[in-house]
Design brief:
alpha/beta
Length: 184
């Protein structure tokens, strides 16, 4: 049984965070999350990128913008599942992650510029992937790898139009819309 994970990106700033937020969404998808919630500035280009990748590479990944993240998280915690907050100030992820139940949905909160203090109280788990400043993308990838039991991105996603096959010295991409491999 795999966990049903939603990744919640707090505090997105459209002009400054577009690339890092896109990478968070792509990492969430590749590592097995089912949903991505963008909070902060409404940025249709980030959501379009995630939608395009899902359309091309398959899977059932969805994304949305939420203008009121605390309301969304409070509703989630009261009726749907558990909240995991990735932070430098929490308990070590490798000692806590295995104790998180996967029989109910999980919202993984990844902060932005400034995380409201209420998040620490609302979260069921405040988890640290290292206690030094580092990329939130790296923290999400490490946590998701532990949570999902490995790298989900090495599986084929259902309904993929494009499929990348590992190759020792080049690129092999199969386009299922015409069935032909493309090598580079």
């Amino acid at each position: 049984m795999r966990a049903n994970v939603t990744v919640v990106r707090l505090g997105h700033r459209q002009q400054r965070d577009k690339r890092i937020t896109s990478h968070l969404g792509l990492t969430a998808r590749a590592m097995g999350a089912s949903h991505f919630v963008l909070c902060g500035d409404n940025d249709p280009s980030v959501l379009a990128t995630l939608n395009d990748v899902t359309n091309n590479f398959g899977g059932d990944f969805t994304s949305e913008h939420q203008s009121k993240p605390m309301g969304w998280l409070k509703r989630f915690s009261k009726g749907e599942g558990r909240i995991v907050h990735l932070t430098m100030y929490g308990e070590s992820y490798d000692s806590v992650t295995s104790s998180i139940p996967i029989d109910e949905p999980i919202a993984v909160v990844v902060g932005g510029a400034k995380v409201p203090g209420d998040i620490y109280k609302l979260a069921d788990y405040n988890i640290s992937v290292g206690n030094q400043p580092h990329s939130e993308v790296a923290a999400l990838a490490l946590f998701m790898g532990e949570m999902m039991g490995g790298v989900a991105g090495q599986e084929n996603f259902p309904n993929a139009r494009l499929e990348v096959q590992g190759h020792p010295s080049g690129k092999v991409v199969i386009d299922h819309s015409d069935g032909s491999p493309t090598s580079q």
